[in-house]
Design a protein that fits this description.
Elements: H1 7-14, H2 20-26, H3 37-45, H4 57-66, H5 76-79, H6 93-102, H7 107-133, H8 154-161, E1 170-174, H9 183-186, E2 192-196
Helix pairs in contact: 4-7, 7-8
Amino acid sequence: MFHTDIQPVVDEYLAGLISEKNFVKEGRAWSNYKDYQPLIEYAKTNKLPVIAANAATRYSNAVTKSGLDILKNFPKSSLEILPPIPVDTATGRYLEKFADLLGGHNMGSMKIYQTQNFWDATMAWSIAKSFKTTNSSKVLHLNGRFHSDEKLGTLAKLQKYSPKLNILNISSFSSEDFESPDWGKYKSLGDYIIITDPSIKRSF
């Protein structure tokens, strides 16, 4: 949820220096922040760092409009909160999945795919940097499952940035067969699979 450029806002709130109202507003929290609030408060109570890992919308919009090469034109101060340039665009299985999701390849979908890769790279780089700058031995990263199912996307880029990391992924989703799932069908998605009851209303 949180963008790399508001890391100071996150740190200030965790340190108890600013109000939650200011944190939510100036941290540009999503409308469903209440679903994530318990995690933030747990981190605050237990003095755990929280990584603002995602790319700000202004950067992702620029990539969607002009492609990944546009990132080279941003000033040095901006590049400090972005992943290393150039950002690779994944081929193979990840591209196939994305094309299936959007209904095939075309110029518009490929620009969106570059943005997807930009998000992956930014989140992965943010995690990789945290291991270098903090004493954390573990990082729990939350993202939409497309970013990490089958160990693709963000997970693949993190492995590239930090090849020595031991990375495990959890894929969680609802499915009609949740009472007696066909685990063989799902085993490629992650190291751990959590299947929930689709009849239970989601809060977001």
